[in-house]
Write the C-alpha cells for this entry.
Amino acid sequence: MISIDNLSVSFGGWTLFDQISFLINPKDRVGLVGRNGAGKTTILKLIAGLEQPTSGAVTRNADCTIGYLPQQMVVHDTTTLIEETAKAFDVVLTLEAEIERLTAQIATRTDYESESYEKLLHSLNEATDRYHILGGDTRDADIEKTLLGLGFRREEFSKPTSTFSGGWRMRIELAKLLLRRPSIFLLDEPTNHLDIESIQWLEQYLKNYNGAVLLISHDRAFLDNVTTRTIELSLGKIYDYKVPYSQFVTLRAERRAQQMAAYQNQQRLIEKSEEFIEKFRYKPTKSNQVQSRIKQLDKLERIEVEEEDLATMNIKFPPAPRSGQIVAEIKGVGKAFGSHRVFSGAEFTIHKGDKIALVGRNGEGKTTFARILIGQTEPTEGTVRLGANVSIGYYAQNQDDLMDGDFTVYDTLDRVAVGDIRTRLRDILGAFLFRGEDVDKKVKVLSGGERSRLAMARMMLEPHNLLVLDEPTNHMDMRSKDILKEAIRKFDGTVVVVSHDREFLDGIVDKVYEFRDGGVREYLGGIYYFLEKRKIEDIREIERKAETPKQSATATPAQSQGKMSYEQKKEQEKLIRKHRKAVETIEAQTAEVEEQIAQYDRKFATATEYNAEDYKAYEALKQQLDHLMHEWEKAVYELELVEGE
C-alpha cells in the first residue's frame, strides 16, 4: 500500500535518515519508536506528503488515502460541534448531490440503448457504491457513536466549538479523522488529550479498523493493545520487529547485546591493526604488510551502536513526616462555577498511606477537587478537613507554566529553597538529569519533559506526607515514567494522583475515585479492577437505555418489558456464572494453601531443630493466603453486585 524506498533526510550536513526502506501493508498495526529527535514525527510528515526527503521516495497506491493527526493542529471555531464533525463527510455530501443529479438525468431519458445512457448508469453505480463505502447511509449514527466514544455528551452536540478547551477541540479533529475512514491513520501521540475510557474506546476502534495504522505513543498499554509490529528508528536506520512493544523491548535487548559484541570485536581488531601500523610504519621489510593493514582499515565498514543513555532519574521522595491516621475528611463536597455544577456529593476519608487515583472524563472535576484538597480553591458546598501535621506537596498539571521562563534551572530551585537544602541543589538537579551546563539553561528553552522534571524537583525541596499529583507523567518518556512510578510506590506517605495512564497507575494505587456525571464514586481496588467494574456497569447501562426505545415500538409495554427481561436475565445469568466460577476457583486455591500451611504447622509442632528453608516456604504460603483472601473478598463482592441486580 505504501512503500518507503531508500529514504534519506539531511539538514545542513547532518543526516537524520540514511537510505531507509520499509513497506506498510493494508491492515498493518505499526508502532513507531525511538529516542527523542530520532525522526519519528518526520517519518509521519514524509508519508503524509507534508515534507520532502533529500533523496529516495514515498510511493502510495493510487487509491490510498491518508489521515494524519499531528501533536498540534489548528482547530477552526466557526461552527457547532455536530456541524464541524459533519465536515468529515464533505465527499459524501458531494456524492449525494451527484447521485441526485444523475438520477434526475436518467429519469428524463428514453434512449435506453444508447452509449451515453449506459455511461450515465455506470456513473450512477460508481457514485452509489462509493457513497455506501464512505458510510453515507449511516453517517448520522457514525457521527454520534464517534463523538460519544471520544467522551462528548449528546447535550454538547449543538455547542459552538469555540466553547471547548484545546484538548476537547483536538478530539473534534480526531473524530473527523476517524469518520473519514482513510486507508491509513498516521497518529502522533493520539492519547495526549484523552481520558482512560476514551483511550480504551480508541483502542477498540483502531483494532477493528479495516485500514492500516502507524502511530507514535509513549503509552505502553496503548501500544501493546493496538500494534502488532514495531519499527525502531536508531542512528538514521530502521529495525523492523513483527511484534508489539513489550515483546520488542526484549528482542531489542538481545539485538543490542549482539551488536555490542560485534562492535567490541571490531574495536579490538582496529586497535591491533593501528598498533601494528604505528609500530612497523618505518620498517622497509614490513611496508607491504603495513599498506595491507591500512587498506583493510579503509575498507572496513564500521559498526555503529546507538549510545545507550544510561543516565536515569534517581528520584527518591524524602521520608514522609509523621501525621495522624486520618489525612483528610471530605464531607459532602461539591463545586460549581456560577450556574455550572462540576460535581457534588464527594464523601470519603483519606487515610495515612493511601495511594489514590482520581479518574474520569476531562471537565468532570478531578483537577478542581485536587485544588480544593490543597486549599487552593474553596468548595461551594461541604467541607474538607485535613488531619494533624499534614504537609502537602502539589504538582499541578500546568506546573511548568507556573515557572518563570527567564530564570535558569538552578535559579528556579534556589529561589524557593530554604535552609541547609540549598547546599544540595546541584545534587537534587543531578538526580533529575540536570548536569553540568544544563543547570544554567533558561526555563523557556527547556523541552516539555525537562520542564516536568524541573517542576517535580522543585516540589521535592522539602519533605511532605501528602503528595497531590495532577498528570505528573505528561511529556515524560517511558523510562522516566517507570522511575517516577517506582519512587511513588516506595514513598511511605499518602498519594493522590490524577492520571489517564493505566500502565503508570497499575501497581501504585489501591483506591480509585471516579468523577462521573456530576458525582464521585469509590472503587476499592487498583486501576484494572476499576476498569473491569466499569465494563460490567456499562453493559447494564446499555441494557437500561435499550429498554426505553423498545417500549416505544408497536408492541405493547408489557410485551416489550417481557422481551427485555428475558435478554437481561440471559446476560445476568452469564455474568453470575462467570463470577461464581471466579469465587469457586479462589476458594479451591485457598483450601489447597490452607492445607499446606496446616502440614507445616504439624511438622513444626514435632520439630527438634530449626530449618530456615521450611520457615521461608511457610511465610511465603501465609503471604499467598493473605493475597487469596483479598481476591476472594473482591470476587464475592462482585458476585453480590451481579446477583443483586
Observations:
- The longest strand covers residues 326-337.
- Residues 268 and 274 are 10 Å apart (CA to CA).
